[in-house]
Amino acid sequence: MGSMGIDTESNYDVVYNKFWQDIKKRAPEEITVARAVSYSRVTRQYIVIFFAEEYIADCDMETIYRKADSQVPDVVATIIILNYLAYAHPLPESTPGWVSIKEIPGGMIFYSAFHKTAISVLIETFGHQASRLMTVARSLGAQAGPFDNTSVVFRAFPEIPLCVIVWEGDEEVQANATMLYDRSIELMLQSAISIDLGIYLAGQLKRLATIHHD
User: Fold this and answer.
1) CB 3.0 to 4.6 Å from 176: which of 11, 148, 167, 193, for a disulfide?
2) Count of CB atoms situated within 10 Å of the CB of 126
3) What average pLDDT does the chain have?
4) Contact (Cβ atoms closer than 8 angstroms) between residue 195 and residue 91
5) 192: which residues sit within 8 A by CB, 6+ positions away?
């Protein structure tokens, strides 16, 4: 699955269980005040918006599923959503700004693997058809980004933007791409999970590009 933070199935089980226990130890108000989520005391469920879709995190069943059709997200998406809830704490005021994976604590260690599993996927998928990026990205609730080249901003969660930039290549110029995070990401998710988030997004974009391919 190309994940940095989840290496094996057994490790996934350990991380999954730990995050659920961390969430259930917290008072729901601690999480809802620090995250753009809602909580029902009747159902003991959180509603989380992940890439513009609502997901239910059920504390009694310890399950996550999409509200619209009850589909269970894949392993990586599940862990990302759980970390988002488990890692919730009030954030200090900060100035918005884009940073690369190299500027996230621990990001340099994983950069070569991240490039292989995320950046290279973006280059391969959109490097010679950059206009397809926006077409595909709309289904994930994305909007046009702030950069001159082909750039798109996604909301992984309401407070967690990701920006994908593609420089289209031709016979003379090599295609390139990058992915940027808001500098607050290190306070929102654990570093390894932030990297997993980028890999997950690149994989989803490739999957959607394949589906939408003419």
Assistant:
1) 167
2) 26
3) 92
4) no
5) 4, 5, 106, 110
Give rounded-to-5 percent helix, strand, coil for the chain: 45, 20, 35
pLDDT of residue 1: 40
Dist CA 212 CA 190 (whole Å): 33
Sign for the CA dihedral angle at 198, 202, 208, 212 comes to positive
Beta strands in 59-212 (DSSP E): 63-66, 98-100, 143-144, 150-157, 160-167, 176-182
How many Cα neighbours within 13 Å face the side chain of 5? 26
User: What residues pair up with 54 in beta bridges, in sequence order?
Assistant: 49
pLDDT of 2 over the 50 cut: no
Q: Could you give the CA distance from residue 182 to residue 104 in angstroms, rounded to a whole number? A: 10
Which run of H or E residues covers position 45?
A: strand 45-50
Side chain identity at 56, as an amino acid letter? I
